[in-house]
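Quick one, probably user error.
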């Protein structure tokens, strides 16, 4: 049985994108990216909404860009090897291999996917994650907290939800980033 993990880079004040939709302030440097690569190895399936999928589909061809450092190439390989499920009512076709499109998020189908999976699953993007959190599907929360306060934008956690958590792991990086891993208590 796989765990459903919600993991994203977030600002210290809890935003994944600022008020202008920018998230470049949280782009990981080599040390943090190598750690994210290692964490991602357990993921067999990514669950995305359309916008997050459009952002992440960069990794389908990232290895073709000249001069990419090894840690970028490594993440591209890890991402390409995983399955992707994209929840979208507007996306006509996937631009990446190992990808299927679902028209609606069905919590029972995700429960079945978790039960059948030999690997962990990741729900990415705060809008889709909010649906998974509200349905009680998320088993683990991984916050990669960047040393920035952005003052507004799109929040990591949805409003109106309470989940009791247990700290499972933490790590500090040289650039001020902190990794926090929580399990549902």
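Nope, works fine. Designed sequence:
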């Amino acid at each position: 049985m796989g765990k459903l993990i919600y993991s994203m880079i977030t600002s210290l004040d809890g935003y994944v994108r600022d008020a202008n939709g920018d998230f470049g302030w949280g782009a990981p440097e080599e040390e943090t990216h190598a750690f994210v690569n290692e964490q991602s190895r357990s993921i067999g399936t990514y669950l995305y909404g359309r916008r997050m999928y459009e952002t992440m589909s960069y990794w389908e061809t990232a290895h073709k860009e000249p001069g990419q450092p090894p840690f970028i190439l490594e993440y591209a390989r890890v991402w390409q090897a995983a399955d992707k499920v994209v929840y979208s009512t507007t996306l006509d076709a996937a631009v990446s291999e190992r990808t299927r499109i679902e028209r609606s998020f069905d919590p029972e189908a995700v429960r079945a996917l978790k039960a059948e999976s030999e690997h962990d699953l990741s729900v990415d993007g705060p809008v889709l994650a909010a649906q998974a959190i509200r349905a009680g599907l998320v088993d683990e929360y991984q916050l990669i907290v960047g040393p920035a306060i952005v003052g507004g934008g799109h929040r990591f956690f949805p409003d109106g939800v309470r989940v009791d958590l247990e700290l499972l792991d933490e790590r500090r990086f040289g650039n001020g980033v902190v990794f926090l891993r929580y399990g549902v208590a």
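The first helix runs from residue 30 to 40.
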